[in-house]
Specification:
heterodimer, A: about 290 residues, mainly alpha, MetI-like fold, two-stranded antiparallel sheet, 2 strands, flat, B: alpha/beta, D-Maltodextrin-Binding Protein, domain 2, nine-stranded mixed beta sheet, about 35% helix, about 15% strand
Amino acid sequence: MTKTKKIDPSKRAERISWMLVTPLSCVLGFFLLLPILTIVTVSFWDFNEWSFFPDFILDNYVYHLTSAVTWATYLKTLKFMVLTWIFCAGVGFTVAYFLAFHVRSLPVQVALFLVCTIPFWTSNIIRMISWIPFLGRNGIANSSLISLGVIDEPLEWLLYSDFAVVLAFVHLYALFMVVPIFNTMMRIDKSLIEAARDAGASGLQVLTNVIIPLAKPGIMIGSIFVVTLVMGDFITVRHMSGGQSASVGRIISNEIALLQYPAAAASSVVLLCTVLLMIGVMMRFVDIRKEL
Amino acid sequence: MTKQLDTKGLSRRSILKGGAAAAGAAIGSGAVTGFPTIWAQNIKDVTLRQFGTGVSNINEVAAKVKEDLGFTLEMTALDSDSVTQRAATQPKSFDIADIEYWICKKVWGAGNMQAMDTSKIKNYDKIVGIFKSGKLTPESVIAQGTAPHTVGFTSGPNGKDFVAEESGWMTLIPTIYNADTLGIRPDLIGRPIDSWAELLNPEFKGKASILDISSIGIMDMAMVVEAMGEYKYPDKGNMTKEEIDMTLGIFTEAKKNGQFRAFWKSFDESVNLMASGEVVIQSMWSPAITAVRSKGIPCVYQPLKEGYRSWGGGLGLSKNLSGLELDAAYEYINWYLDGWVGGFLMRQGYYSAVPETSKNFMSEDEWGYWFEGKAAKNDIKNPFGDVMEKAGAVRDGGSFYDRMGSVACWNAVMDENRYMVRKWNEFIAA
């Protein structure tokens, strides 16, 4: 009698796939699901000045969702998000288009692509803060405009304004749009464009009927990056608006600073749901899995 | 989770320190007493971890502690919110908390700190009256807000309450305090400023700022509202909901009219706003004024007729301190009040809780300039050797008694704190 058991090959394959999937599930379980579950749990707890304790109350949600500040802040954050998205998409698409279709040689493409990433070699914060002396009342922008005779008085709205916030966001996040769009554009079969030309399509028609539809997954991936990053931001809005504008992230960070962890948890859960909902809607437009 | 606040058995640190700490603990707990030689050797192994706001967490102090007392002091500087958070939720993360009195009011009830026996404090009798009876001089009127003496004493070694009289058990040993007012850019304003009401003067539209730390900002606001003649608070330091609504209402309107250029949260931000000329009048802290001036930019810490908003800080001990480490902490506190630190801080524009000991560590000219409000005979330098004032300069606001004698209110936490904070957030989001 042999001791080795005969294992059905299909069962064996199933076991191997379970084993292969285990490490990733563990990582995601511990570092993603568990923290989120903790946050959801804590969001129902009660708190006082210096501690929080298990309970089951809905007050945190009721206060958050009925407060006029929350709604005003969401509106403001959405405004930042939409504006940032429009400009990032514009910049991202144009840069990617230039790289993919106007630059012919691959080495030049790669070189120019790397040039795009240079600003990203320093930290987010530094890139953002460096706008402040540039845009200030006596900053480089205002003093050059005055010396050129374009304006007489310094422009106040350049810094500590919604303009400054959106500008910083676009600067910070445009690359997240460039990369995926460039990636999908590089995969577009050049013969499709030639075929369109042969069929008599104009440049605009090639763009709207061939390139944009085929670059849609890249645009969508970039959009997901931009939307989630802007919705979750708290530091850019604070610094570029001079502390005068609120964002959802700042509400949460304020609550944490004031030791109101359950309230912060409730706000986070609401934000998480909002962002998931937005991504869900975006995914309906493009089936990324199919397109990639 | 931050629920488990009490400690049982050996702490992680004492295990790490091993034998030396165990021997130390035996001495400290009273099992072995009166062996100065053993003491002197073990104390070198002690490390005390202090955290607090930037003002007094200075590396020079840690270096001097090592030199004078032999043990190591590790310092961490954090903002007021983080300090509060740590003191309330992470008792094991610190040995000594360098916190303000209003923070003390907020966190003392959490029970993470232990009261200090004033009989072990050598210079206790010399501590300024503000921190004991609340009165600077016998005739002084006690200012509104969380005055330090109201949260300075507790009922006993394990007390979680505050008592009015000098009970012999102190919550914080006062170390540093000052009188705050508005900072201005005289060159850009070009006329005298003498009232808090000027902060909302439309003349400075788009050029004013206020700090975005609710418990301090609300007091500055109250000073402004009162100065404008809008309302007289029965107690600025403890507003009713209606008073909070009214105060923030006035400022929300000003904000919507574009009065403010920005709100600042950190020391550096306030310096940058002022130095770059983005702002010409704003709430400010004393060393920030100095920092602006040291760039060669004129900046005045303007005394105002309504008086100052004052603040005070002190050192508190973590509940987890015991044995040798506790003794070292007392040693440190006694050293702190002994004058060297006082002189160091006073030469930056703060006041020491025991001014008379600091005098020994300052030149006559420095003492005259900083404390007595006299004109400087020579250039006044800060402890780091930079010239702060030229000969002939007089301190903004004058002498110690002029400045600390005109305190109108102390930084405070109110009974309606939670409501105030929510309203404050609405103001920021408005």
